[in-house]
Design brief:
The protein is about 30% helix and about 15% strand. The chain is α+β, with helices and mostly antiparallel strands and about 325 residues long. It folds into 2 domains: about 120 residues, no CATH class; about 130 residues, no CATH class. A hairpin with a 5-residue loop joins strand 12 and strand 13.
């Protein structure tokens, strides 16, 4: 009978093979680190961009709600986003629900964006309510920063959102800033443009009505077709279509006044959701029935205005030109 000798690896051979494999794994892992870090950084940048777009959209949509709250939160109609500050080791623990209030504006779920590309939580910084002025108009705002602590998972000590809403990043931290001051200035400029457009339309209406009057009577107030009590009067444009506001400012959509001026609902709704006001018969403007006798003679005036959440008014007085 032939005998067979069993073949296999000896223990020393196996130990040598394991050591070689370990060294290879360590070498490969070290070689892959830059690539893994780059991929994580790219994913972080993409997630931050998604969050920034969603935050800015929600801020613009709910500006009035945001500005109404003075605390360090972003108060939206869909919920409130609060600060997520770093703990003692510099990491931040965002929850799956942290960005839920802006979930409908995200390209993916809020839970999927609760961590950066390295799996670390985001830090969220929000200023208290601040104020600024542009073109003589005061407005309120918050600024919001969302920051990744980077590949090392710890927020750099130099990273912060300062009291004016400026974001500073240190180390390998990555972040985005929703600049409430800039967003607010755009809203104010938009509102000013709307008020100016309505005022120009009102001025053109007055001039057109005057020119359509065969007598070209400059003693007639062409800003309204009746007296402020609603009665007909030769002192007002009886054949015109612009009603009196009854002695008080009224939303310009009342009785279709905006349509008389050729304006759409969007033209007369400011970014905070308020309807522009028109006044053609209170004692603030010049008209034939003003309580103040010195305010009854031409040139007659009317006023377009709106009030912002800060309490500041944007208004323009229109002088009728003949």
């Amino acid at each position: 009978m032939r005998s067979f000798k069993q073949k296999g690896f000896t223990l020393p051979e196996m130990l040598v093979a394991m050591i070689i494999a370990s060294v290879m794994m360590i070498t490969i892992s070290q070689a892959m680190q830059p690539a893994l870090a780059f991929m994580a950084k790219q994913e972080t940048v993409a997630r931050l961009a998604d969050i920034k777009v969603a935050l800015e959209f929600a801020y613009k949509q709910d500006t009035k709600s945001v500005e109404a709250n003075a605390d360090q939160v972003l108060a939206l109609t869909t919920g409130t986003i609060s600060q997520v500050l770093p703990n003692a080791n510099g990491s931040c623990n965002t929850a799956d629900t942290t960005f839920l209030p802006i979930g409908r504006n995200l390209s993916t779920s809020a839970a999927a964006l609760a961590h950066d590309g390295s799996g670390n939580g985001f830090c969220v910084f929000i200023t208290p309510r601040l104020s600024a002025n542009i073109l003589g108009v005061n407005y309120l705002y918050h600024s919001i920063a969302v920051v990744s602590p980077g590949y090392d998972g710890a927020l750099d000590p130099a990273t912060n959102l300062d009291g004016s809403g400026s974001l500073y990043l240190g180390g390998d931290d990555k972040g985005i800033l929703v600049d409430g001051q800039k967003l607010g200035s755009v809203l104010v400029e938009t509102t000013l443009a709307q008020v100016n457009k309505a005022a120009t339309a009102l001025s053109n209406y007055f001039t057109t009505r005057f020119q359509s009057n065969p007598s070209r009577d400059i003693g007639v107030d062409y800003f309204a077709n009746v007296a402020k009590d609603g009665t007909a009067s030769t002192l007002f444009d009886s054949t015109g279509t612009m009603p009196s506001t009854g002695g008080v400012p009224l939303p310009i959509t009342v009785n279709g006044m905006h349509s008389v001026l050729g304006l759409s609902l969007g033209d007369v709704t400011d970014p905070w959701g308020a309807i522009l006001m028109l006044d053609n018969s209170s004692d603030v403007v010049r008209h034939p029935q003003n309580s103040n006798s010195t305010m009854r003679s031409p040139g007659f005036t009317a006023r377009i205005s709106t009030s912002m959440p800060s309490g500041s008014a944007i208004e323009r007085t229109v002088v009728g030109t003949y």
